[in-house]
Design goal:
345 residues, alpha+beta, ph1033 like fold, two-stranded antiparallel ribbon, 12 helices, 13 strands
Length: 345
């Protein structure tokens, strides 16, 4: 789990089932006396991709990933009278996707280990191992977050990976976009260029089109139907790399989808690489004959391709050059009865 992610602890109490199912956190801005609530400031600090530990009924029962920033919202309809606080004023709402833990964790059973890393102030957990009664959403210091992840035995990492993969990298892009919006070291024009490059537009697309003339795989020349896709993911690229035309390919939308998610990649010499996790029927149904060579890449592009193969393709089940069968390979009949080589598990 990336060290730069922030961690939060939410004490759901009776709101647990509704907020887990509804995929949100919600907290009123003011209490019944009209005084601003401390938890509200934490709600506005949550960023896309942050990790949320969910506590209810004396145990951590779910882990979630923030899908966006807080926005002003009325009390959720399902909260209603069940909230017990008579709240009708608007509050802060943060979208969070939760997955319940297969093995919930009772902090009180690990008081000795957790006590050594509890913060002196604003701790989400009391010395007894119970959730703090005075906090709805509390920041979790890095040392405490690391200890909780350790005690959960990899469950938190698995949940975060599952959620982020399902969203196809959008969370990381959203977090990077938010960071660019907040920067003061670049002028407004540079901000526009960097943000538009995320969507394959602006000066970035112009730079890509100076190098790439058509879709590398389908050969489509009509650029109105092609996407300028970063080879090294946009969120992982520095400012110069975000705008570098050599860090891009023109791809048909369906191939852009596969490339961005690590199902396809390319060797420097142009051999199409297909993940062993890609259903063999997919390239067949899209008319992609295998094996295939799309032409060698420029040296300036190859360094980005090396990153894509190592950090995107290989991390998502990257295979080997199509057509290079091994003892583990089997011939699988695809759509229309055409054979395609795929690697068995």
């Amino acid at each position: 789990m990336p060290a730069l992610l922030r961690h939060w602890w939410v004490n759901h109490k009776h709101t647990y089932p509704r907020e887990i199912k509804g995929e949100y956190l919600w907290w009123p801005k003011k209490n019944q006396k009209g005084v601003n609530r401390d938890a509200g400031s934490n709600m506005t600090r949550v960023m896309p991709g942050d990790v949320v530990f969910s506590f209810a009924d004396d145990a951590l029962r779910a882990v979630g990933v923030a899908l966006g920033r807080a926005r002003e919202a009325p009390p959720p309809a399902e909260r209603g009278a069940a909230s017990g606080d008579g709240t009708v004023d608007p509050g802060w709402q943060v979208p969070v996707r939760f997955i319940e833990l297969e093995h919930p964790l009772r902090p009180r059973d690990h008081r000795a280990q957790l006590g050594a890393v509890l913060p002196a102030k604003n701790s989400p957990i009391g010395a007894s191992g119970d959730g703090s009664q005075g906090a709805y959403l509390a920041a979790v210091p890095d040392a405490l977050a690391a200890k909780l992840r350790e005690l959960l035995g990899g469950q938190a990492e698995n949940i975060v990976e599952k959620i982020t993969q399902a969203l196809g990298g959008r969370l990381a892009d959203d977090a990077e976009e938010e960071a660019i919006q907040q920067r003061t070291d670049i002028d407004p024009t540079m901000k526009v260029d960097l943000l538009s490059s995320r969507r394959g537009q602006g000066v970035y697309r112009e730079s890509v089109e100076l190098i790439e003339r058509s879709c590398r795989v389908t050969g489509l020349l009509d650029r109105r139907h092609l996407r300028a896709s970063h080879i090294k993911p946009w969120c992982k690229s520095n400012d110069a790399e975000k705008l570098d035309g050599s860090n891009g390919l023109l791809l048909s939308p369906h191939l852009d989808h596969l490339f961005a998610r690590g199902y396809l990649s390319f060797s420097d010499s142009g051999d199409l690489l297909v993940s062993r996790y890609l259903n063999p029927a997919v390239p067949i149904s899209w008319g992609i004959a295998l094996p295939r060579n799309v032409g060698a890449f420029r040296p300036e592009q190859c360094r980005y391709l090396e990153y894509h193969r190592r950090e995107v393709f290989e991390r998502h089940g990257g295979g080997r050059r199509q057509g290079q069968a091994s003892e583990l390979d089997t011939i699988v009949a695809g759509v229309g009865g055409e054979p395609v080589i795929t690697q068995s598990e």
